[in-house]
Specification:
With about 180 residues, the chain is α+β, with helices and mostly antiparallel strands. It is about 15% helix and about 35% strand. Strands 1, 2, 3, 4, 5, 6, 7, 8 and 9 form a 9-stranded antiparallel β-sheet that branches. The C terminus is likely disordered.
Length: about 180
Amino acid sequence: MTDAAPLTPQASRPHMPGYGILDADAGRGLLPWSWATERLAKSHNYWVATTRPDGRPHVMPVWGVWLHDGFYFSTGAGTRKALNLAANPRCVVCSECADEAIIVEGVAEEVTAQSVPPQLKDAYFKKYNYGPDPSEGGIYAVRPRVAFAFIEKDFVGSPTRWRFSDAPLAADPNAGG
């Protein structure tokens, strides 16, 4: 993830049978990706969901920053999160605010000390009065593949799914929520 042009994912309504979800042009309509990134950047705490090697789920709260169209967080090399990501880099990141929910499905990669964006430590320090030490490792970048959001007060008129250009599209247009 670099200073390249910002991501411009394709927005659509997610497939949610039985919930009375309105068409994309009804209610609030599709949310812009900028709506999601503003909230991802402002969130103080996040939830990261990974999968254990035996298939059981694992969810933990983390600190992190949204930077260069990706989510960066740190964790110790021996933590369950790190072990899970080493075996399966697919994960889910959620912001702390469920009434304006944002769910990002993506792929995490460990960032080497040489490839850590120079702004990362400053962004962390500004937010948490703490900055991870890239020389200690354990910094991950999650690149989004699919993201979802909804606003609780307009639940039927706001659900939005964003697909990113490098995300494989399923043959079924309703696949992926």
